[in-house]
Amino acid sequence: MFSITEVCGMSQARSLPFLRLHQVSEESSNEMPVPTKCHNFLHYVKRTIMQCWALSSAAALTILLIYWVYGGVLAFLLLCFTVTGILYHSEDQLVYHPDQPSHSRIFIPIPSMMRLPYESIYVRSPDGTRIHLYLIKQPDAAYKTAPTVVFLHGNAGNMGHRLQNASGLYHSLNCNLLMVEYRGYGLSEGCPSEEGICMDARTAIDFILSRPDLNHQQIVVFGRSLGGAVAIDLAARPEYSSRIWCVVLENTFTSIPDMAAVILRWDVLKELPFFIYKNKFLSWRKVSSISIPVLFIIGLRDAFVPPAMMNKLYQRCGSPHKQVVHFSTGTHNDTWMSPGYYAAISNFLRSALDYFPTKIESMSNIKSV
């Protein structure tokens, strides 16, 4: 027999599992199901990956655009730097031609071939380079009072190739001649450069002044083509213009940049900065500093140096004793064969007899050439 109390206890005991299960069910109903959690996590990861992918794509596109723009510019600048560097270091070969014609460094015609008396002389430039000279003097004692012409030749060959012209000057002007063979030309040592050959010209003047048997009051500097640019540089220096009587310029140019534009037919070359050019020979700038008598000889059939360049030099020349003469049949190298050529030079020198070099102690303001 069970008491009522026991029956109730048993009844409550039987109902406890149900109550616990119901309680657990209610607690579980407050939590998120496991599949839903995974779905949200995957969605978050996917969204993060998409955002990173979008950012990385934009970054990659930006990098490509920067490389395409700036990389191309840098590549172009590098190409320009390389090309200008090659041209800069090869410019000497483009300007100076001591090997044309062939054997010009070996075979140098001597003045006796033209029946001219001469001395073959070697002197040292200030930098130690040995320079070859021909000194051709008038016979007997006439050479002591005769003017001395310093002959500065062009950019090809050697001084011996100009002996016919030298013979004409010798006999027509009754002058001595000092023919200068630039460094790197003929039997002279070294390699040609703008600074070097201008130094050689100054060395030639110093040599004449070191010779007591020569007339120091009548030194004439003659320059053709490249030699004209060297003569202008020499006469533009006060310490040397004070020692020079006259200058004769024949078929020379205004500058190397101007000649490059003419030869290559690229006007843009005139706009390039001067530091691009290793050799400049800015004669148009220097000629305004010349104050001694200058004769400009222009061959109107010059197919290499435009006669307009010589006219520009004449107009810019600062000398109050300047003259110009034109030869209608004159070419670049053969104007000296034109009728009246030597007479024009002789008349110019006679007109300058009243001029005497002024002793100037100041040094040149030309720091570099």
Query: What is the subunit arrangement here?
Result: single chain
What is the helix tally?
10
Q: Report the portion of residues in β strands.
A: 5-15%
Give the helix level as a range of percent: 40-55%
Rounded mean pLDDT is 84
Low-confidence stretches: 1-34, 362-369
Summarize the biggest pleated sheet.
Answer: 8 strands, mixed
Label the overall shape: elongated
Number of strands: 8
Could you tell me how far the N terminus lies from the C terminus, measured between alpha carbons in angstroms? Answer: 138 Å
Gyration radius (Cα, Å) is 44 Å
Structural class assignment: alpha/beta
Order of helices and strands: HHEEEHEHEHHEHHEHEH
Widest β-sheet, arrangement of strands: 1-2-4-3-5-6-7-8
Fold blueprint:
Elements: H1 4-28, H2 34-95, E1 119-124, E2 130-136, E3 148-152, H3 163-173, E4 176-181, H4 194-210, E5 219-224, H5 226-235, H6 238-241, E6 246-250, H7 256-264, H8 283-286, E7 294-299, H9 307-316, E8 322-327, H10 341-351
Parallel strand pairs: 3-4, 3-5, 5-6, 6-7, 7-8
Antiparallel strand pairs: 1-2, 2-4
Note down, in words, how this protein is organized.
The protein is α/β, with parallel strands linked by helices and 369 residues long. The protein is 44% helix and 13% strand. The protein contains 10 helices and 8 strands. It has helices at 4-28, 34-95, 163-173, 194-210, 226-235, 238-241, 256-264, 283-286, 307-316, 341-351; strands spanning 119-124, 130-136, 148-152, 176-181, 219-224, 246-250, 294-299, 322-327. The chain has an 8-stranded mixed sheet with strand order 1-2-4-3-5-6-7-8, with helices on both faces. The radius of gyration is 44 Å and the shape is elongated. Residues 147-260 form the AB hydrolase-1 domain. This is Protein ABHD13. Pfam families: Abhydrolase_1, FSH1. One of its GO terms (molecular function) is palmitoyl-(protein) hydrolase activity. InterPro entries: AB_hydrolase_1, AB_hydrolase_fold, FSH-like_dom.
